[in-house]
Structures are given as structure tokens and as C-alpha cells.
Amino acid sequence: INFFMPGNSLYIISPYNYAVVTDRNVHFKVQSQNIFASSESFIFEVDTSPSFNPSSAFFRSSGVITSVGSLARWALQLPDKDSLVFHWRVRLNLPVNEGGSWQMASFTYMKNGKEGWVQSDYYQQLSIEGNEVFMDTVNRKWEFVPIDETIEAYTARWRHGNLGIKTSTSQFLNPLVGNCMFGGLLAIVFDKRSLSNELAHKYPLNCSWLINFNISVAPAGIYYYTFNTATVEGQDEFARFIDTIQEGDYVALISRYDAKPSVWDEKVYKAIEKLGSAQIRSFTNDSMAFSLVGKKGGSTGDAQEQITYNPTPSPVDTFIATAKYVAKGSWYQGSLTSKYIGPAKSWGNVYCSFAPVGHQEKDSILIDFFVRTKAGTDSLVFTVNALDSADISFIDAVEYPYVKLKANVYDKLVRTPPELKYWMVTYEPLPEGYVNTSWQLQAPKINIQEGEDILLKYSFENISTQPFDSIDVKYSVVNQNRQTIKSEIKRIAGLPKGDTAVVNYSLNSLGLSGLNSMVVSVNYDLAQPEYTLNNNSISFPIQVKNDKTNPLVDVLFDGIRIMNGDIVSPTPQITIVAKDDNQYLKIKDTTSIIILYQPPKSLMPEVLSFSSPNVIFIPASVNSTEAKVIFRPDRLADGLHELQVYVRDASGNPSGSKPYSIKFNVINESSITHFVPYPNPFTTSMKFVFTLTGSDVPDNIRIKIMTLTGKIVREISSAELGPLRIGNNISQFAWDGTDQFGDRLANGVYLYQVQVRYKGQEVKHRASTLDSYFVKDTGKIYLMR
Known about the structure:
single chain; Jelly Rolls; 6 domains; 9-stranded mixed beta sheet; 5-stranded antiparallel beta sheet; 5% helix; rod-shaped
């Protein structure tokens, strides 16, 4: 189920990471993930370095700050130093294993600047994504990624077919060398950065054959040097050649046929030792072959080298002198890509500044500017060279709230990427608000009756420097299967910066029985752009008790509940009462009640229509759980009638497994039975029981109570007797055995007579089974105290 589970961490609200802050008076805001927290303890720290050294001149600490609710605030005045980067961190005042780990961010104070995003110092640039470049964390600068190449040298003393100098990815690099020399040393130089031999070494090409025949060295890829070391001039030239090679460049060197080491001067050995050779002084015999791959300025023994010996007079090479060396260089192009920047309310400008390294004229910087589409992909907007600034206000921030920068850097000569001084995007930030559970919160009741309103009160506070337009709020009820079973959208009016909206909400729980959660999501669909939605939702558990109680049905005839088969008036007012004990789910609709009426001699009942003028529906009211139907039929015929009532309450519960049924008799002729005393005998009091038929109630009734001698001791009038009705009656009047003056009569038998008239006419007597107890319309009463 979707209950809110409070976390034990925090969110940074402001200043957000890489923010541009234009006011020295900074208000730091963070929020506990436990949005329902009544208070939390936080610690803030600020420094110009993420080391947060307390001895630093700029280090500041808040000490322990206790929040009211989940949001903590700390105000600090910054030093008045423009374009200074500050790093700040905050944590809950808890052990790390309980959620007290630091959360970090940085911002730049720019006096008279504009709000936005900027990265400049080394620590901020660590978040930049490098492609074919990386941050050298020792020297704190960007470098192209390293590359490597295996340089191979093969030679022999007597034969040289398919031997020479090559790389693992090339053919032999010394074609036609036989036209340049017969015996001596052959050398090829590889650039220490590119590992390429395609760039002509500054030492003049010394192959006269290539020069005389005007062979283009670039297309042919011929950049080798030959030296006849059998002569003093050749040895001197070789030594000068080695001296012209830059430190760190790689050199592949092989002997060809007879290099005459037996006549070498010391300078030749020293020159080769500058390449890291440790074996060259063993190369002394003219029947030896020598191969080496090393690095100018390398330490002794760093070079890969081999000497082979194939003595005369049998000029057959048994051994090949082989050297293989893995050279390390650098790539020459790559890119730096920022994280997504935003979200923004509107865009301003983009600025970039790079400091060239090495040969400025050889550096190349192209800046790609991307927006993020709603599909989550990057779309290129423009590309510019060596960007200083560009206007991006034309970009629709509603459609594209996030942008990204990509710097494509190129340096094929020095192979050192230009240094990023800063890149910045100015924009108007989005507003930010949160559900403030520490003020005006009234959570709904956990246990409610189905049909009862879910009542909620909460506040939403704008904690940013930007105003909100009107905000949509989604209210959802989610069941135990994580299914939304009810939801609706309401709107909060716009909120100025720093303002708070107090919201009252109610939702009826009909159809929501069971264990659910009530989820409130402010600005749920980001229709009003906002910085983050992390703090916009709250939820509450709600147990809705299902209404399973059957409604009750009662039927009254002229306000009286009758027995089955009782006599009623031919023109009765029949009141059907449907009562439900759920005060929240009341019967308010005629569809909840079905009434069937079957008159005498009818084979099938008829359904009473609520559109009939004889039928009135009165729904349950605010103060009553009873719904009523008043049925005033036209004059009914004599005989046995039947009424059946079906009722279902608002929850669908029936009034019973069978309909409520009542039968009643109608006699149109006016008549009345004898008045029968009850109880009889009596001790304290008695009433009169009788049955009245017809449609008119007698207007004159007089009862005389007499002694056995005929003396009248008590007379009872219509007014004393109380109201009468058609059907069975029990008088309201109760005789207590006293005379007309209130004096108690003696025990014994008393006689009584009843006179009944309507409009001066005597009402006809109706025979009953009790008539045998009367003599000449005179009955007996037994008083026994």
C-alpha cells in the first residue's frame, strides 16, 4: 500500500549545486526526507574547498541548528570577494549509520551577476564527463587519454629481406632503404605524443637517393634516417642526429649489414645510451647485429634491445636481433560534457572561457549546445567556435527546461587539451515549494465509517525567490493492491515568493472500504514548472469501515403501526419509513425503495410510481437518517389489501432477504364494536378497547359507569377518551376506579354503557366475538384492589 515511509536523510534545496549566487547574504535551505518530522537537528559547513578545514580563513560552521518541522534554514554573509567558489555541506546531527552522512554542493558568488549555473574550479569540474579526455587529479588539469603502440625492430648480420622497423599496426617503415645505404645504422623517430613517424623530424632527411629522385616523403610515409658508421663522418652525423631528438620521443634503431662497431668512436655509444640502452657497449664485433627501441632521455635499461652474433666465414644468420617496445602517447581530440543544467523558467546567456595550452594557434574548441527533449534525448541547437558568449533566450524553457554543454577540444600538435577556466549558463530559476507539515496540518482520521467525509488540512509554502502560478493538486486513494480507486484534481491559487497556502480538502469515503492510503500530490504533473517534486507529496493511512448493516423498514397507517390483517381507513395515509444507522450514507434517492401494492381480487401487485401525485418521497435529511414515502391512495375498496416494500441503503445492503409485507383490511361502512375494558378485572387502572370502521371518526362518545343499582358514579366524554382512529383502538384514557369527584370506589362489579354518534346519528354496531359479554349493550367492569 502507498503509505508514506519517512526517510532518514535530507534534500538540499538552496543554493542548488553549481548555482550562481548574487547576494552576499545567503539563505541555506535543506529538508529532511521525513516530511512529517516535528523537528530535526542539522549541521551546516561552508568553505572555499571541499576539505572543510576549520583552520581555513573562509571556513564557517552553523553548529547544531534545530528545525521547526522538516525544513532547516541557515543565514550566512559571504566575504565580499567576487567570483569566489564556495563548497558547502550539511548533515543530520546523527551517526552516519543512522542517516547522518554529509550532503555536498557548491556555488559561486558573483557580485552584480545573474542567477544561473557555473562551473569553474577544479572540484566542480570533477563532475564533467570526459570523452577521450580525463582529469589528471595530481596536476589538476585535463589530459587527452593515453594511447599505446608496439614498435618492433628486426635485423640480422648477413641478410635483411623482410626485416626492418614496423609497428603492430603497420608494414615495415623502411622501404627502399637499400638505395640509401649498404652498411651502418638505420633509425626512425616516433613522436612522444602521437606515436607517429609521419611528421618529418627536424633533422634533415639524409638519404641522397630519396632526395635525388625527388620522392615525396609525406605520401610515401618514408621518414627514416641512415648513417654509414664505418666512417668518422657517419658517426659524427649519427651523434648529432640523436642530439636533435626531443626528450621523450621514441627511437627505433637497427644495424644493417656491417655497422663496423669495431671502429666506433665513444660518441656513438654515448648517443645510443641516451636512448636507454644498457647493452650497446657489448656491440663490438663486426659479425654482430643490433636492434633497439627506446626513448630519448630514458633511464639505462629502459630500452628494449638485442645483440646477435653470426661469425664468419659462414655468412648465414642463425639469430635475428629483435626488439619490441610498447610506447605510450596521447590522443589529440575529445570532449567535455556537463551534467544537465536547469530546470529553468527562462533562459539567458551561455558563456565559456578556455585558456590555451601549448601552441594556441593549433588548439581547436567547438562548443555544442543541447536541449533535453521530453523524450529524454539530447537535441543539438547550435555549435560555435571558441565561444565567448551566446544568447539562448530564444529557447522555450517550458518545452526545454534542461540544457547541456559539450566542448569538443582538439590539439593534434601538442596533444594537450585547452584548460577550462569556466562555463556558465544564466537563467531564471523555477519556483520551489514544499508541503509544510509543521503548520496548519490536520491529518484525516485513521478510522472512519464508509460514507463519512475524509477531512484534511495542510499548507504548501513557496520557499523560493520565484512566484508560483496556480497549482494543480491531485488527491488519490490507493488500496492495498497499489491501485488508485479514486482521484480528483483541485487547484491552489498562485503563490508569491515566501507565501503559504492553507488548503482544506474533503472527500467522501463511499466505495472506499478497507485499508487505503490518502495521497496528496501538489503540482503532480509539473503543469506549473518547479525545481523538484521530492517534497510535494504526503500520504496518510485510512481505514474505512464497510457499511454492512441492513436498513430497517417500518410501515405506518395514519401514524400507527398495525398488525397483519388489521382494519384501516379507506383513505389512509400510509407512511413507509426506511432507516439506516449510517449517518453518512443516507437514503436520498427513490431508486433505493420499491413499493408493491396489491388490492383485493387482484392477481398481481403493481409497482407504485414515485411520479404519482399520491406518492411523496422525502429523502433522509441532515438531521435524520430516515427516508420516507407517503402514500395517500384514493378511497380503497372493501377487502384485504397487501403492501410489499423493498429497500436498499446507499451501500447496497438490502432490508432483508425478503420484502417487508403487511396486509390490511378496509371496510367502508361506518361501524363500531362494543367497548371492552382491559384489563378486566383490574386493580389500578383500565382502558377501553374497540374497533372502528368506515372513514369517519365519531364526534360524540359518552361512557357511563354505574353501580349495580344504576347509580352513575363516573361519566367519560370524547375529550377525556382521547383521539380515535379507524381500526383497532385502545383509549388513551385510563379509569383508575374513582368516581366523578376523584374518590375511590369500593371493590366490586360496575356496569357501563357507551353511546357513539357521528353528526348526531348513532353509529352502527359492529358485531364481534365478545358480544356475548354484553346484555342490552351493557357491560361489566370488575374492580379488585
